[in-house]
Design a protein that fits this description.
The complex is a heterodimer of chains A (about 260) and B (about 325). Chain A has about 260 residues and is α/β, with parallel strands linked by helices. In chain A, about 35% of the residues lie in helices and about 25% in strands. In chain A, a hairpin with a 6-residue loop joins strand 7 and strand 8. The termini of chain A are far apart. The longest helix of chain B has 27 residues. The chains are: A alpha/beta (about 260), B mainly alpha (about 325). The interface between A and B is medium-sized, with 29 and 28 residues.
Chain lengths: ~260, ~325
C-alpha cells in the first residue's frame, strides 16, 4: 500500500452557519488521475480552494505523503508542489509565451544591478517545455499568449506548473470552454502528466472527459461525496445520473415532456 | 532583436505612436515650413515634452499595471509651492526643500497606492480624491502661511543650474532629466525582470499574485513614482520661473493621459512600452506647439489633438490585433 501524495481526511468547511463541505475524504496517488465530478454548486470550487491553501478546513486534516499539512496561504501550498491551473489562469494574453512562462521567476543574466531578463533562454525553455507535452504548434516564444487557442493556453499553463516542480496538479474545469479537438489536446497533456508521475486532480462536469483519463472518480453532491469508485466500476449513464443528484436522466426527460 | 522586419516593428506597442509622430511632423512641415525643426523651434516643443514626459512615463507604467493616477494635476503645484514656501518664504536650505518635495510626493503616492490595493475603489476615484485634497491643502496652507497664492523664490546658483536653467538660453535643463529618467525606466521596464512584473499585474492581477509577484508592493511603488515625478516637475518649474503658483497643473492631467494613450499603452493595462510613451509625448508636444509655426489660428490645436487621439487609439488597436494574431510562417 503506497502512501497517497495528497489525502483529505473527513474535511469539513463552513462559512459562518453555512456548511459547504461535509466529511470529505479523498486521496490521490502518484501517477494517478482523480476525477472530481459534480454539478454546479456542489462544492467543487470550495474543495479546490481548500486544497490550494485559499481556505483552511474548518475540521479535518490534509495530509501530504502521510504528513499533516496546514496551509495559511496559496503560496504555502505551491511551495509544497500543489499547483492549481484555472481556466486560462496563469497566462497573460498580451505577454509573450517566454515572458508569461517565467512570470515571477524570471531568468536573468548579467551582473549586479544590471541583471537583464534573459529573453532568449526564457523563450527556449518555455517552447521546449510545451513541445515536450506534444503541443508542437508552439515554436516561437515571442508569440503573444492571446494568439494561442484555448487548448494551447491551457496546455501552456499545465506545462508551466509541471516545469516548476508541481507534484499535485489541480485542474479546474480545463476542458469546459473548449471544442472537441482542443479538449483532446488537454486530455492528452493530462495523460502525459500522469505518465510523468504527477498526481492529478481533474475537476469537470463532462463525464466523457473524465472517463477518458480518470483512474479514480468521486462524485460530489451538495458538499458531500456521493460516490467514490475506480475506473470501470460504473457506466457513463450511472455517473451522469449520480451527478444530477440521484435523479435519473430518464426522470428528467419525463418531467420535461409535460 | 535578431529578426528586424517591417512586420515585427509594426507589432511592437510603439508602432502606432511612431507613425503618429511621423504624421504630425510631416503635417507641420507642409503647413509650417522647416522653422519648427530649427533649434529655436525644437526648443519650443522639446521643453513642453520634457515637462509632460517626466510624468507621463510613470503614469504610463501605472496604466500598464492597470491603474490610473490623476492626482498628478495637484502634485505639480504642490511641488512648486513646497519649494517656494520653504526656500523662498522661509529661506531654508535648498536641499531640505528638495527632500521635502520628493518626500511629499512619496507620501501622497503611498496613500494613493495603499487605498487602491486595500479597498476595491477604482484608482480613478481614489486619485480624484487626492487630486482635490492636495489642491485644497496647498491652497489653504499657502494662503495661511504667505497670505498669497503666488510665492517668489530665488534659488542658489547650483540648484538653479541643475533644476531650473535654460541651457543656451532656450533649452530647459529638464530635458536632460527626462532623457536620464527615460534611460533608467527603459532599462527597468524592458530589460530587468521588474518590467515583467508590471505587465503581468496589468494582464491578470490574480494570476500575477499566484505566480509570486508582490503585486501590492509594485503597485504602491508605481504610485509613489508618479506622484514624486509630478512634484519634481513642479519644483523644477518653480526654480525655472523663480516663482510658484497654486493653480498650475490641471491641464497636465489630460496631456499626460493623451501622451500615454497615443504612445500605445492599453487603457485597461497589460500592454505598452516606455519608448511608445516617449513618442506619444513628443507627438502631443509637436501638435500643441507646431500650430504656432503655421498660419492656422491656435484654437484649432485642440481639434487636432482630439482627432489625433482617436486615430491613435484606433491605430493602436489594429496593431495590437496584428500582434495577437501573429504566428510565424512555417518554414
Amino acid at each position: 500500500m503506497t502512501t497517497p501524495v495528497l489525502e483529505l481526511q473527513s474535511v469539513d468547511k463552513s462559512f459562518g452557519p453555512i456548511d459547504v463541505l461535509n466529511q470529505i475524504s479523498l486521496s490521490v496517488n502518484k501517477g494517478e488521475v482523480l476525477c472530481l465530478l459534480g454539478d454546479n454548486g456542489a462544492g467543487k470550487s470550495t474543495l479546490i480552494k481548500t486544497l490550494a491553501g485559499v481556505h483552511k478546513p474548518t475540521r479535518g486534516k490534509i495530509l501530504m505523503d502521510g504528513q499533516e499539512m496546514s496551509f495559511d496561504r496559496p503560496r504555502d501550498a505551491q511551495e509544497k508542489g500543489i499547483a492549481t491551473v484555472h481556466q486560462f489562469g496563469g497566462t497573460f494574453p498580451l505577454m509573450s509565451i517566454g515572458r508569461s512562462f517565467f512570470v515571477g521567476v524570471e531568468p536573468t543574466k548579467g551582473w549586479g544591478p544590471f541583471k537583464i531578463f534573459d529573453r532568449q533562454s526564457a523563450n527556449e525553455i518555455a517552447v521546449k517545455a510545451v513541445r515536450d507535452f506534444g503541443i508542437t504548434r508552439i515554436d516561437n516564444g515571442d508569440r503573444l499568449i492571446g494568439g494561442l487557442s484555448g487548448g494551447e493556453r491551457q496546455s501552456l499553463a499545465i506545462a508551466r506548473a509541471v516545469h516548476f516542480g508541481a507534484r499535485v496538479l489541480i485542474l479546474d474545469e480545463p476542458t469546459a470552454a473548449l471544442g472537441v479537438k482542443q479538449a483532446g489536446h488537454v486530455l492528452r497533456i493530462v495523460n502525459e502528466a500522469k505518465k510523468r508521475g504527477l498526481a492529478v486532480i481533474f475537476i469537470t462536469h463532462q463525464v466523457m472527459h473524465a472517463m477518458a483519463v480518470g483512474d479514480h472518480f468521486a462524485v460530489l453532491i451538495r458538499g458531500a461525496i456521493a460516490a467514490d469508485f475506480r475506473k470501470g466500476d460504473k457506466s457513463r449513464e450511472e455517473i451522469t445520473d449520480l451527478m444530477a443528484g440521484g435523479e435519473t436522466m430518464a426522470d428528467l426527460e419525463a418531467q420535461l415532456e409535460i | 532583436m535578431k529578426n528586424l522586419s517591417i512586420g515585427n516593428l509594426l507589432r511592437r506597442p510603439e508602432a502606432g505612436a511612431f507613425l503618429g509622430l511621423v504624421t504630425v511632423v510631416v503635417f507641420f512641415l507642409i503647413f509650417g515650413g522647416l522653422s519648427f525643426l530649427k533649434p529655436a523651434g525644437i526648443a519650443s516643443w522639446l521643453n513642453v515634452a520634457a515637462n509632460i514626459g517626466i510624468i507621463a512615463i510613470p503614469v504610463g507604467l501605472l496604466m500598464i499595471a492597470g491603474e490610473l493616477d490623476i492626482s498628478i494635476g495637484s502634485m505639480i503645484p504642490a511641488g512648486s509651492m513646497i519649494v517656494a514656501i520653504m526656500s523662498g518664504h522661509y529661506d531654508l536650505p535648498m536641499w531640505i526643500s528638495v527632500i521635502a518635495v520628493l518626500g511629499f510626493g512619496a507620501v501622497v503616492g503611498a496613500i494613493n497606492g495603499f487605498l487602491v490595493v486595500r479597498t476595491a475603489v477604482p484608482s480613478l476615484i481614489v486619485t480624484l480624491g487626492t487630486l482635490f485634497a492636495v489642491a485644497g491643502l496647498v491652497l489653504g496652507l499657502s494662503v495661511l502661511i504667505t497670505g498669497t497664492t503666488s510665492v517668489a523664490i530665488k534659488a542658489p546658483a547650483f540648484y538653479k543650474a541643475i533644476f531650473g536653467q535654460f541651457i543656451g538660453g532656450t533649452y530647459q535643463v529638464l530635458i536632460l532629466w527626462w532623457i536620464a529618467f527615460a534611460a533608467i525606466y527603459i532599462f527597468f521596464v524592458h530589460f530587468s525582470k521588474y518590467g515583467n512584473w508590471i505587465f503581468a499585474i496589468g494582464g491578470d492581477r490574480e494570476s500575477a499574485r499566484n505566480a509570486g509577484i508582490p503585486t501590492t508592493k509594485v503597485t504602491i511603488t508605481l504610485f509613489m513614482l508618479s506622484a514624486s515625478s509630478a512634484a519634481f516637475v513642479g519644483m523644477c518649474q518653480a526654480l525655472l520661473f523663480n516663482s510658484a503658483q497654486v493653480s498650475a497643473g490641471m491641464s497636465y492631467i489630460f496631456n499626460v493621459i493623451i501622451s500615454v494613450v497615443v504612445g500605445g499603452v492599453l487603457l485597461t493595462g497589460g500592454f505598452g512600452s516606455v519608448i511608445g510613451i516617449i513618442f506619444g509625448t513628443i507627438t502631443l508636444a509637436v501638435v500643441t506647439q507646431g500650430i504656432y509655426f503655421t498660419s492656422f489660428d491656435r484654437n484649432w490645436s485642440s481639434l487636432i489633438i482630439g482627432v489625433m487621439l482617436l486615430l491613435a487609439v484606433l491605430m493602436n488597436n489594429t496593431f495590437r490585433q496584428m500582434a495577437l494574431n501573429y504566428s510565424p510562417k512555417k518554414k
